[in-house]
Amino acid sequence: MEELHISPADPRGSPAKEQQAAGVGILLQIMMLVLSFVLGHVLRRHRFYYLPEASASLLIGLTVGVLANISNTENNIRAWFNFHEEFFFLFLLPPIILYPFFVLTQSGFSLQPKPFFSNFGAIVTFAIFGTFVASVVTGILVYLGGVTFLMYKLPFVECLMFGALISATDPVTVLSIFQELGTDVNLYALVFGESVLNDAMAISLYRTMSLVRSHTSGQSFFMLVVRFLETFVGSMSAGVGVGFTSALISFLVVCYSSDLNFPNLFKYAGLDIDNLQNLESCLFVLFPYFSYMLAEGLGLSGIVSILFTGIVMKHYSFSNLSDSSQKFVSAFFHLISSLAETFVFIYMGFDIAMEQHSWSHIGFIFFSILFIGIARAANVFSCAYLVNLARPAHRKIPMKHQKALWYSGLRGAMAFALALQSVHDLPEGHGQTIFTATTAIVVLTVLLIGGSTGTMLENLQVVGDEHDGPLGESFEANNGYIAPSYDGESSSGNRFKMKLKEFHNSTSSFTALDKNYLTPFFTTHGGDEDEHDHFLGDSRR
Amino acid sequence: MEELHISPADPRGSPAKEQQAAGVGILLQIMMLVLSFVLGHVLRRHRFYYLPEASASLLIGLTVGVLANISNTENNIRAWFNFHEEFFFLFLLPPIILYPFFVLTQSGFSLQPKPFFSNFGAIVTFAIFGTFVASVVTGILVYLGGVTFLMYKLPFVECLMFGALISATDPVTVLSIFQELGTDVNLYALVFGESVLNDAMAISLYRTMSLVRSHTSGQSFFMLVVRFLETFVGSMSAGVGVGFTSALISFLVVCYSSDLNFPNLFKYAGLDIDNLQNLESCLFVLFPYFSYMLAEGLGLSGIVSILFTGIVMKHYSFSNLSDSSQKFVSAFFHLISSLAETFVFIYMGFDIAMEQHSWSHIGFIFFSILFIGIARAANVFSCAYLVNLARPAHRKIPMKHQKALWYSGLRGAMAFALALQSVHDLPEGHGQTIFTATTAIVVLTVLLIGGSTGTMLENLQVVGDEHDGPLGESFEANNGYIAPSYDGESSSGNRFKMKLKEFHNSTSSFTALDKNYLTPFFTTHGGDEDEHDHFLGDSRR
Q1: Which residue ranges traverse the bilayer (chains A, B) (predicted)?
Q2: CB-based contact (8 Å) between A7 and chain B?
């Protein structure tokens, strides 16, 4: 790369040189991206699951960072990686969030509506209540750790902020392993649903705590709850609204162009279909951004909003697309999300190598990892207990699924994003400590948990060939589309249990609303959900 | 939109408000994009060729701009459209440049290698010599116009800069009409090849003139030529080098993964193929950027480099991709290029409405349009004369093709990009005048020429059903893959003609080099070019 610096003289002098340095940085980044992709491909081809793609990217970033450190050109190279927060939030995070919704692999493991809806109550419990528990437990433990001089001391509110941001789990690596190895659809729905909604909760909690921190005077607990609901419900409503708008528009476009389904009738219909696909895809790419911008414009959380837009679009708009458009949209989000994710992991590896380490950070990282393990256990096992209280015997979440759920709590891009924001939100030392700790935690969990998830899931016997049969059918046998009506056998009339069941029933009435009104209205296929199920069943044979 | 300003109070005050305004701007832009796409789709469905998509976008931008002007919130809205030059050059221009290479429509009108190579000499003549002629003629006429007080007076070098930037033609609208209506493959290859290479020439000329302007002292004509060759040949070499690297890597990836073509042999091969496609697509997206950055890092022109990378990638790397990857890459570039282009046209319309107009600008615009028409005539007819001198009788470019070529000289995104740069390169008033004039010229040519090209081409009888037959065969009948060996009938021994023919022969020896060495080495298909041809022929039936 050195020869680039002695390239033909540019008359514009210093600013041009700076621009050139930025160019060299981007060149280096592109080379690292290419290397990561090729390496990831080779590793996957040899079924070497101990080093998933994310870890490979991390290690490449780490290696380049260490080399840069040794070659003493640190300041120069540091400048190459000028990582704008805005760039991250606007261009890297949205595809990473959206991709999981639109996976359409041949192995049939996309977010199928049935297992998702029948586990909706459990998912919401894990994601909303569980994440709240995990955040508070982590926050309190980190605060106590600070008080007892085990680790760097942070104010209580900042501990809660850290607890919230570190509770955002990342589905990508675990889900990709699930997809390759095959697993129970219910477990898949739980892990996926939890890790998706959990981000929304973590962000809302983080924002609420951030508001509390900046207005220390006269904040009642009531105001706190209002602020939280404002962020969460507001962003959710904006996201859901944009999602339904997109469903409506895609529905109208499809109706308007419905004669295109018979290409032989029109002379240039081939081209028209190409253009229709392009239009559909454009709308699909634009609406999530619209949702993001609308929420941010309203002072809400764009990421939470985009999440809910993704959910609604997956369920309603996506099925309006033609087959080829569905394939394209899926491949498109796959492409940009893997580019974005690889970039984030390379950056994290690089950052770790560049960081000035101090012992206080090492202690903070070590105890944080311990505490988030405890907090995740508090989340998973308490929520599973609650969910099992409300479920009939044959639908209880088995212990091995609970353990798998506990183990699959990787931290990823979202925790990193919030930590990046905390550097701006908190005073210098504190934000930097949180950022360093979060980066290290993400790297360690990705390397350790990501590398061992395959083995762990096999030991828990939740993956492998016995689950590899016709998933659709085995699902069909266990759980209907409509949540079961709790036949007789639940006899105890405990009031708390009743409440839980009411909540479950409201879930099933939402399912009915969806099936009877929303799906027929917003999509072109009346109620042919079974088609999806057949696809799921067939594709695994 | 107004309610967004009185949204829930944000504690961070003014900078947050600014960010909110930017958010509202992006919201508005997304809405305009959605509207443009839907409107464009409706217009195309009704075969209303007088208002192509580009014009529709322009008019939407214009309308919003006028409304914003009337509502007197000009300053506010102006701020919404903070259009960063860097954003344009890095994110909008590359897909617009690359897309035409990877068109893969069902009507078979992509850049087929045969007509392109057999017209290579003509294309190079039009693009290199012709663009030089057009630039110089425009520059001189604009200078003379300034001297005779017909229009705003610019220094001679700046006139040449303007001449160079306004000579960059835009293929997209014309080609899309050609694609919908069908035309002669030779004319298509000429128009396409000329408009692609012509950009490279225009940029290099512009940069050379820009260097001359900033170093007025002691620049000999010799240095000028050296500078020009440095930019042009340097950028071309960088682009071609990266293109061949990409071909080699894609070739290696395909060889390494070649057993994936038999998915039944492997249990999870379905997923592997998905991942392979993702890898291939990533490489395809990354390499053009690598080329851009490499050239910019070397102080050369990234856009010229990306152009040549596109040419090489189209010819060698693209054929290594699997069918589904080819479809995906094509749809991907279609998507982002149409987003980028629509955005640029909306912006131009908006800018026109916002601009403070003065009479000097109107005059400048009027005479510029006159002069570029004259300059384009000088380009097309003189080059066609030269080409026809060297060609045997049955391959001469007919007058109606020359007229069609003259007429299809729309100005588009590239001229706009260079004008945007000239605002920075030239003193305040001059750069602004050139920018305003260029924007207006682009808008007018797109509206007038774009809207009437269909009619014009029909009047010239170069489109329509008589050309709609098996194109491959009619091409086969007229011109072989190897340029013909000038059998006997060219008897006159004029030295100039001999030179021209030597040039033509060198073109055909390049064709032989490509066929015998490059294509077999860099691609997986040995020499099955005929396959492409059959595709071309069949698809029109």
Answers
A1: 21-43, 49-67, 87-104, 116-144, 228-254, 289-316, 328-350, 362-384, 404-423, 429-450
A2: yes
Give the pLDDT confidence score for residue A109 in this predicted structure: 45
> How high is the ipTM of this complex?
0.75
Percent of all residues in chain A with a pLDDT value above 70, rounded to a whole number: 69
Q: Give the nearest partner residue to B271 out of A30, A106, A286, using CB atoms.
A: A106
Cα(A350)–Cα(A344) distance, rounded to whole angstroms? 10
pLDDT score for A69: 75
Comparing C-alpha atoms, which of B116, B109, B110 is closest to residue B483?
B116
Q: What is the mean pLDDT of chain B?
A: 74
* B26, B283, B328: residue with CB nearest A37: B283
Nearest CA in chain B to A273: B106
Residue with the larger pLDDT of the pair B198 and A23: B198
Mutating which of B17, B30, B267 best tests the A interface, going by the most A Cβ atoms within 10 A?
B30
| Contact yes or no for A273 and B106 at CB 8 A | yes
The model's confidence at residue B501, banded by pLDDT at 50, 70 and 90, is low
Q: What is the pLDDT of residue A197?
A: 84
Rounded to the nearest angstrom, the minimum Cα separation between B59 and chain A is 19
Short-list B282, B283, B280, CA closest to B257: B280
Q: In the structure, what pLDDT confidence band is assigned to residue A219 with cuts at 50, 70 and 90?
A: low
How many C-beta atoms lie closer than 10 Å to residue B380's C-beta? 26
Structure tokens at A136: 């508070």
Q: Quick check: helix, strand or coil at residue A270?
A: helix
Tens-place pLDDT, residues A452-494: 777 777 787 776 544 443 343 344 334 433 334 344 444 444 6
Joined tokens for residue B30: 């997304």
A215 interfaces chain B, CB cutoff of 8 Å:
yes
Tell me the shortest Cα–Cα distance from A352 to chain B, in angstroms: 25
Is B535's Cβ below 8 Å from some Cβ in A? no
**C-alpha distance from B390 to closest chain A C-alpha (Å):** 37
What distance in Å separates residue B374's CA from the closest CA in chain A? 35
Count the residues in chain A. Answer: 541
A183 in helix, strand or coil?
A: strand
Q: Are the CB atoms for A285 and B39 separated by under 8 Å?
A: no
**Given an 8 Å threshold on Cβ–Cβ distance, is A8 in contact with B276?**
no
